[in-house]
Amino acid sequence: MINIEDYFTFHEEDRIVVGCSTGPDSMALLDMLLKVREKYHLFLIVAHVNHNVRRESYQEAIFLKDYCEKNHLIFESMVIEDYGDDNFHNEARNIRYHFFENILHKYGAYYLMTAHHGDDLMETILMRMVRGSNLNGYSGFKSHIDMGDYVIARPLISYTKQQLEEYDQLNSVPFFVDSSNQKDVYTRNRYRKNILPFLKEEDKDVHLKFLKFSETLIEANQFIEKVKKNAIQRVLEGDKISISSFLKEDEYIQKEILYSFLSEFYPDDLLLLTDKHIDLIFQLIKSRKGNSFVNLPNGVMAQKEYDFLRLVREVDDISSYEIEFDQEVFLPNRHKIEKVNSLDDNSNDVCRLDSSEVSLPLIVRTRKLGDRIAVKGLHGSKKVKDIFIDKKIALKDRDLWPIVVDSSGKIVWIPGIKKSKFDKPKLDKYDIILKYS
Fold first, then answer.
1. Left (φ > 0), alpha (ψ -120 to 50) or beta: where does 393 sit?
2. Would you call the peptide bond into 361 cis, given omega within 30 degrees of 0 as the criterion?
3. What span, in angstroms and rounded, lies between the C-alpha atoms of 8 and 29?
4. Which residue, of 57, 60, 337, 360, has the fewest CB within 10 Å?
5. β-strands 291-296, 144-146: how paired?
């Protein structure tokens, strides 16, 4: 006997957004909520996402809209027009939850309720065990997740899919069956079709054993979270990890720190990551190279910059630029170079030039292969690449760093880093003062 009130504590006039796909699970959940709506005076909003991968999906959306009108429910929907990710399930989930959040905020709802059940939990745990994860990942997912301004609730986690289908039959609940759930091309479907039936033959209540396993890991992880938070404070400098501090931590906590940082880039509970990716980051950390990186799924990069590690999402890099300088130029690295009338500063952020010694106009550009600069006070010239290395300039910054040259191509200044022989002392003759800020 299924009773949603056994697994969710309702409050008077709760506002609940229900993620509904028209499948047997979500339609069962919606029917259960309708049965207690009057009792608690619930305000229900049905949120539906058309994934746009089956012809039937439009018919299902129309059906659900009509169903909501008949039952006096608010209906909100969206269509996913395009997918750019090579992992369909991951991208679809991200789009879904972004849509759900917007609906929650629109109606001032506090709960997002989904129809995840015991079979879903088993599949998730098994998939993560095979792929590799951390303790939090191995636990699958929680029945309640506090997201700050709302709570994700999964009140059907103690029931199997079969129990929910039996509920639909007993209560004459209409639903649609997603044909894509039978396709072996999706990893989750293979677990659903081949592994779960075997486990259920061994023990019909095996889903409850998995639930207990999940809850045990969640409790252990809560303790580890406290230890990890203290460790993060010790290793974090701004938005980067101090590698020397990081390596002083216990190896297990090191992994937890990495998973914590990675979770910012993978809202799908790190589903795309495996032990292999963590091993790659450790190899990066322990590499003798001062500047290097590894690529991670979905356009994320782990970058080592000498004693620091940072995680970034790749963007379309500006590979080069060349700008003729007049009075002021704003640069892609968010700095600017401007001509000023006077300045006391004599740092590398300032350059003084005699126009009779250089060919005007000046050009601001990115570095080129083989660039050399006649360094002030040094006989001969030095490679720009070596100067960047000496100054520990991160790889991601080098390609956008401005190089000031005259119209004949001579490098007269590397702003903020190095002056050339063309730079003049404050008491000498010059008619151009450049400032980098």
1. beta
2. yes
3. 12
4. 360
5. unpaired
* 18 has pLDDT over 70: yes
What whole-number distance in Å separates Cα of residue 351 and Cα of residue 433?
6
Using the 8-state DSSP alphabet, how is residue 191 labeled? Answer: I
Closest to 153 in 3D by CA, of 140, 165, 143: 143
Please tell me whether residue 113 adopts helix, strand or coil conformation: strand
Q: Which domains does the chain have, with CATH numbers?
A: 4-212 (3.40.50.620), 238-313 (3.30.465.60), 322-436 (3.50.40.10)
Contact yes or no for 50/77 (Cβ under 8 A): yes
Q: Where are the alpha helices (DSSP H) in 193-301?
A: 196-202, 206-235, 243-246, 251-262, 275-286
Nearest partner of 397 among 422, 412, 417, judged by Cα: 417
Rg (Cα) of the chain, in Å, rounded? Answer: 30
pTM given for the model: 0.61
Contacts of 107 by beta carbon, 8 Å cutoff, 6+ apart: 15, 17, 43, 45, 74
In tens, the pLDDT along 135-168 reads 888 999 999 999 888 999 999 999 999 999 999 9
